[in-house]
Amino acid sequence: MIHFEPDENPRDRTSRLEEKTKSRRRVGVTDAIAKQTTVPQVPIVSSLSATQDGGLVAIANVARAADRIGLGENYRLIGGIAVVLHIDRLGLDLPLRQTGDADCGVRNKVLLDGRLVAEIESMGYSKIEGNRWEKALNAGRVATVDLLVPAFTSYAHHTKRVGDVVTTEVPGLADAFMRPAVTMKAELWLSRPRPQPPSVREGSRPTAK
User: Which of 110 and 95 is assigned the larger pLDDT?
Assistant: First the structure.
């Protein structure tokens, strides 16, 4: 793990992180994936807008909810933030993409069981449509969680009922569940103004899968 001095700002930390990953960029992507099942350093994901703030808060909340109910290998963080984390862990020099929601891929049995949904709702989220939950934050920010399931055929259904949830199938997610999850700890930095919502202060280093 790389140690960051507390008086450094996010830009300084990002620069130091880039210096540490220069040598890794000489390694092929396949080799890097094969060798890394855990991440030795703590990546920093910095939000640039109120919309992105909501996405990071949602990711922290989903990770905490999954840990509380012992979800283990039965979920994956997917979507834009997952791409950002993988780019950082592999040391790739690629453009970063951020998003305003937390896309969480889960096995069908997770939706049938209902415990994850109940835990998310106990944290203040309300279901607004089929597979989407939202929670109002401060300063007009909104945290959004989407729960998605794997597609097991070549045709992914946009509308798929699993228990009480009408969700969407994701191509490739079934393959992801066949591989070991990559467990990461990350620091999620919200845009100014501060203070951060309590949910982020308490879970500044959530486990994302």
Answer: 110
